[in-house]
Every structure is written in structure tokens, then in C-alpha cells.
Amino acid sequence: MKRFFILLLLMVIVVISGCVSTGGAGGPGIVIVDFSVDYSPIIAGETVGLNLEVQNRGEYTATVDRVEYFGVSGWGLPTDTSKSWNLAAADPVTGFEGGTQAETITITAPSSIVSKTNFDLGVRVEYPYQTYFTATMRVVEQNYLRTLTKSERERMIESGGIRQSSSTSAPLSVSTASGSHFIAGRGDVTVPFRITNVGPGFPYTGTDAETAARSGTLYQVTVVDLDNTDQLNCDGVGTITLSRGKNGGFGCTLSIPGTVNNFADYTFSVGLRYRYYVDGSASITVNPPYGVTPTPVTTTTSTTTTTTTITAS
Prior knowledge:
- By secondary structure, this protein is mainly beta.
- It folds into two domains: 141 residues, Immunoglobulin-like (Sandwich); 148 residues, no CATH class.
- Helices cover 12% and strands 47% of the residues.
């Protein structure tokens, strides 16, 4: 019973603490791990620190080049959005975490606030990123299949096609069909690929997300042919747009060898290049200066006028 009470108390503390500030979007890529004020509430005219920390939780070393604070005016939020935070990639083999970057800016609540008011602060972090996809394909020679027993043939066909594949940890993940077999001599076939937005934000092309949204390039991704064996051809794909910013698809031409010695494995790879943004939010409460009489708030309707006095707390 005592342990249960302690656990319940800890849960209450966590919940209460979460009411002070929100933010810290999770997921692969560069994410916001902290966006909060030093303390809340504050008094009108008081200065407080606004803290931002980001971390690279993906497998591509990238640079945060734009950070925009927004949500309130007259608080002294920085107007310069340019950054150059280079964050090393996380290493899933060694378990090393990716690079982090933190900054604290000072903001000042307007002294004209005369009643208790809640404000929502926002931040947008933008950066370029890449996703790499690699797959191994097995090609089987048709005459070789005929020499096998039925069970051996079924096992060989089952093991053919895309045998192994992997997508690096990134906001956008790539996958393709698996399990279908390829027969030598079939010529060129189209391999379907699927892009899934698994991060907390959205991709875009251009200088910044706001401009991209206005120009119609939000949710766009560039497909890059990384294959060094000329087995896969994605040159005609170019830039694609994800549906609602979440899913998209494209096809690449795969050249099946004319002849192989029984069967052979081939490795190919494709990549995605894109800009990505993620948002965070924090809440802060501002009280009027001590000794200030709350200002009456007047609301007018078509028939009556009501005057209400708000008591400061």
C-alpha cells in the first residue's frame, strides 16, 4: 500500500509539472526535447528565461539552420531565425546518442498586463535531412528451378525477390514490396516504393516551411538514385508530394539480369532528400503587478451592456 501511495504521488507530481510547459516532440530525426520557461507564473514586466534543446535521434548528421519563435508580440522574441547547429547522427550499433544543442533566450512580459493571463509560446525548428534505403534482391534462373523438387522449388521462389531491406532512422521511412520472386531474363520490372512520415513534423522544399506552404511545395520530397550497379533506375522520379504530408509512393525500374548461374543476389539503394520542420509549444501565466486594481472588462450585446470586474490572483 505504501509503494502504491508513493507511485501515485509521483504520477501527480509529473502531471502538475506538465501543466507548466509543453513541448518536446519525439520521433526520429532532429527533435525538440525541451521547450519551457524557467518558471511560471511571472509578474507583468518581469523577465524570464525561455529554454530550447534539440537532439538528433536519426542516422544522418545534419544542421539546424532555422529556428523561429512565435506566439506573442512585444515580449522581445528574437527576430533573427538563422542558426548553424551541426548535430552528429546517432549510432545504433554503439548506442551513442546523437548530438544536442541548447539555448536560452530572455523574454519580458509586457508591463501593461492588468489581469491574470495565460500565453502560449511557440517554436519551429527546421533542418535538411536524408533517408537511405538499401535492399538485397535474389534473381533465380528459370531452368535451374525446373531441376529442383517441388518443395525445393517452393523454398527457392519464397526466398527470391526482395530478401532483405533496411531504411535508416529518419523522419521519412522507405519500404518496398518483399517476397515476390524475380526470374532471370524477364528484362526490366517496376519496383514500387512507399514513403511514410514517421516523424513529428512535415517535409518541404524551399527556404522555409512558411514559404513552402504558400508556394505549394509543402510535403515535397526528392528521390535520389544511389545505386552504383545500374540495377535500379530512379532517374525519372524526381520530386514527389506526400498525401497530407504522411504517405507517398514512387516506382523505379529494376533491370533483371538475362542469365545467372542458378541464382544470384544483387544489392541496390535509393535515397530521399528533403527539408523538415518540427514545432514545440510552452505555456506561461502572467499576473498583474502587485497592488494593481484589475481593469473592468466591458462586453456589449445588442440589447444590454454588462460590466464585470476580474479579480487578480
